[in-house]
Amino acid sequence: MGVIMEVDLNEEDKYYLAKKRVEEIKGFYGNLTAYVIVNLVLIFINLYTSPRHLWFYWPLMWWGVGVVFHGLKVFKVFPVLGKDWEEKKIKELMEKERENKNKWQ
Asked: Of 41, 30, 45, 39, nearest to 60 (Cα)?
């Protein structure tokens, strides 16, 4: 049904794609490190200044949701977020458009 396109990549293109992938992984680990450090500081501040009123869990929870989705995207656990899904969808839509044009001719 779909069109399969194979692309022969040269070494320079492979290097560029690998470098881009490493940058994505590095970005995730930077986000994760900032998440841990900042939230440890916020927990300390909250427990030191107002231990009866806990608020640290709000940024911990919401930023944590963002970190989880970032990780799912970077490590391609959730395919809808990835480039492979985008490419497949583009090819699918192009094929449907091609079929619709040929349908009435």
From this structure: 39
